[in-house]
Amino acid sequence: MDVISKLFLHEIEIDPTKLEFEPFYTDSQPVKSFDCGNKDLNDFLCLDEVREYEKELFGKTTLVYYKGNLVAYYTISNDQLRKEYVKSHHGFSKLSEYHLEGIPAITIGRLAVDTNWQNKGIGRVIIQRIAMICLDNSKYLGIRLLLVQAKEEAFNFYEKLGFKFVVETKRENKRYRAKGTRTMYFDIKSLDYLRT
Ligand SMILES: CC(C)(COP(=O)(O)OP(=O)(O)OC[C@H]1O[C@@H](n2cnc3c(N)ncnc32)[C@H](O)[C@@H]1OP(=O)(O)O)[C@@H](O)C(=O)NCCC(=O)NCCS
Q: pLDDT tens across 40-52, in order?
């Protein structure tokens, strides 16, 4: 995603090649020392929830280390987006011709960077990695979108990476009022030029 380096004010301060990605296993130790500034996201790693997600195959969590420090984590899973959320958007106008209820997607259920490591480019590198996972896996199964239920304070971050807001349907507005999050998507097809 070339767009990454162009739209952010801050350079990527860390060396992305030194980031290490370690899957969270059901027998991994709970993580207590992580603080991204959001209690729910911190608690997910130290309560049983993360283990339950792994056991039940609801989400795959990856811990991200930099020079031995736990700097971030993310959780992704399969999902789909109802087509009314994007059918008026550029690139999706022919959706009604297909017998599809929803558009196949990968959801970023959680993404968190430790406060000591925020604003250094780690979030961007993680999104890029997840987008490449989608692109690779789309050789074997349908994946058109990368989705996130974005918190208001992170809208700017995702927009700079090329994510768009879905159509403000009644359902979407209801969710926004209830949870304060908006559904945003990145179109994996825009990465077709990277296919080998
Ligand atoms: C949002 C988050 C994942 C971004 O990760 P990051 O590694 O700090 O992001 P990067 O360094 O790659 O990019 C930071 C850029 O995003 C912007 N940004 C948008 N929202 C931000 C936020 N909540 N915190 C920090 N930066 C944010 C910054 O202004 C910066 O842009 P700039 O370079 O043009 O100034 C991280 O700040 C975080 O974990 N926040 C707390 C938890 C959270 O909100 N998670 C998202 C759930 S939807």
A: 999 999 888 889 8
